[in-house]
Structure formats: C-alpha cells, structure tokens
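Researcher: We plan to redesign the surface later, but first we want a full-length starting point. Tokens attached.
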C-alpha cells in the first residue's frame, strides 16, 4: 500500500483485516491525523513545475520533427528523432550519466544568458559522418582519436542542425544560436556549478540501422528570463489572441495598394534551336493561336482571366471577357 491509490485486492485485504480484528480502525484514523513529513533533497532542487516541463517537452517535440526533416535531407536515409524524456536534475548528475568520451556541442543562445549543451552519442555521430562521406551509415566509436577533418565535419553538421532550435523556440523568444565549443571529454566542460538545476531532454535517435541518444542540457539560468512563458496559461492566451481590428484594416489597406504585374499572352510557338539562332530583325514567328481565340491574361505567373485585344484612346488595351475557371490553366 505504498501508493495513494489502492487496488481492489488491497481494499479487500484491508476490510478483511479490520473485520477480523488484525487491524484497529482507531489506530488507522490516528495515523492519518498525524502530520506527514515529506523528504526534500536540497541538492536536487526542483525549480521547474510539471506544467513548465510539459511546455519544454512540447517545444522539443517540434525540434525533433525539424531535426528529422533536416537530417533526412542531409543523409538521404531513414532518420527518426523522438522525445524520450524530460527531467530536471543537478548538472553534476547529468555529467555522470553520459559516457566518459562523447560528442559535446556547446551553444550560445543570445540574448539569453548562459549556454546550452547538446550531447550526441558517438555511435550516432559517426553514423551521420559516414553517410555524409558516402558510406552506408555504419558506426564505429573512436571518439578519443578524432581527426581535424572529422571534428570539422561533426561540428559543422551539428551547428547547422541546432539552428532549427531557434525555430522551435520562436514562440517564446528570438535567439541566435552559435557554436562556441566542441569537446569530447565532459570532465573538461564546466558550464555551470555542479548543483545547478538543469533540464535534460533526451531524444531517441535512429539513423538507418544505428540508434542512440541525443541529450539537450539547458541550465536554469538560461530559461529564467522566459520561465513565465512556459506556463500553460501563457500558451492558451497566445492561442486565443487575434489581431486587433485596426491592425487588420491597415493590413488590408496595404495589400490593396500593392503593385502586381498583369500581362496578356498573345500566343506561344515552338521552333528549333537552329531556327532560333538564325532569327533576325524583321523575321515573323507564327503563333499557334488564331486571332479569333481569346488571349490568356496572367496575374504574375498565374493564369486568371481571358480577354481580347483592342485600343482605348489610341493606346493598346485588353478587354477582360471573363475569369478563367479552375483547371482551365492546365489546358492552355
């Protein structure tokens, strides 16, 4: 009966014990009336609410989708990113939980204070690099002996990938991520004090036949200026917010004053490259459209109307006869 909710078997056992006299109901009431003490570990301070953790999880789910699209295009193989967990732990505990030799990318996220760490499992990092170099995406782990070329390829790849973190965070704050440090030994990396609370979002990563974890470590100091925006109340307000009527009117007024190109297409023709090279001033090109057929009128590059040519006050003009029905542009 360690949980708050009892199963049906536990309820039956409790009633049976009270009925048989094995358990005294008065003693049970006395235990419930006593004050319960909850153990609190000051070294493991919980500085984020569950609501804020859920908001961060939602943000990184979007980030995972963006990474899936980015790496699928870059590596041209099966790639999948999913959020596995989101926890708040001391920084020291996070460092102890990752491999002794791994891929560490430290990013500045100005204008926010502090830095964000992306830890990539070496198996994943080498599978990515192997695909980019034309291989099948096989993985080896020799992270302690990275060459300068391998270091450059990996750091450049993850810097481009982390740029999508800006898009994932744009509803909260506009940031400019930039790679500040690339390291392989976590013992040489001291971003914050050991007891500082950090949020660690773990991403399950699959590349072809290789799988592993990517961990995003965000210190509390980074999120502190925008922590109020992580509440569910803030997200609900943003969803309900709509443009003010005056702003809408100004936008409509601006759109109506926009200048768009309008052109009337007299016809089309196909000629050989040899005939094209021999064209000279005064030559006549025969169109594949008769003078009785209406002209195609385009707004920008999109066919919208059909009309007939003419003159107005001794100036060339086109009279619009009607709107082009949807699907007719494919027939022109």
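Model: Full-length starting sequence:
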């Amino acid at each position: 009966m360690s949980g708050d909710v009892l199963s049906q078997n536990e309820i039956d056992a409790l009633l049976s014990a009270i009925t048989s006299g094995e358990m005294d109901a008065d003693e049970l009431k006395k235990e419930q009336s006593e004050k319960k003490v909850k153990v609190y570990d000051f070294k493991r301070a919980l500085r984020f609410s569950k609501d804020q953790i859920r908001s961060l999880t939602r943000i990184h789910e979007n980030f995972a989708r963006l990474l899936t699209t980015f790496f699928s295009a870059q590596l041209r193989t099966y790639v999948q990113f999913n959020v596995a967990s989101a926890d708040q732990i001391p920084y020291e505990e996070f460092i102890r939980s990752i491999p002794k030799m791994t891929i560490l990318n430290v990013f500045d996220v100005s204008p926010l204070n502090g830095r964000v760490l992306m830890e990539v499992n070496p198996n994943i990092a080498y599978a990515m690099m192997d695909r980019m170099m034309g291989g099948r995406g096989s993985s080896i782990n020799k992270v302690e002996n990275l060459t300068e070329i391998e270091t450059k390829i990996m750091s450049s790849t993850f810097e481009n990938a982390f740029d999508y973190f800006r898009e994932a965070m744009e509803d909260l704050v506009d940031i400019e991520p930039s790679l500040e440090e690339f390291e392989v030994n976590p013992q040489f990396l001291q971003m914050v004090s050991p007891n500082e609370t950090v949020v660690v979002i773990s991403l399950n990563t699959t590349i072809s036949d290789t799988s592993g974890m990517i961990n995003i470590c965000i210190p509390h100091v980074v999120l502190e200026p925008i922590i109020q925006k992580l509440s569910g109340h803030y997200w609900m307000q943003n969803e309900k917010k709509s443009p003010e009527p005056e702003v809408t009117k100004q936008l409509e007024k601006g759109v109506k004053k926009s200048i768009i190109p309008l052109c009337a297409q007299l016809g089309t023709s196909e000629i050989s490259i040899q005939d094209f090279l021999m064209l000279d001033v005064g030559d006549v090109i025969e169109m594949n459209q008769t003078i009785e057929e209406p002209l195609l009128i385009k707004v920008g590059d999109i066919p919208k109307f059909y009309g007939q040519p003419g003159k107005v006050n001794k100036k060339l003009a086109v009279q619009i006869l009607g709107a082009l029905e949807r699907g007719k542009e494919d027939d022109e």
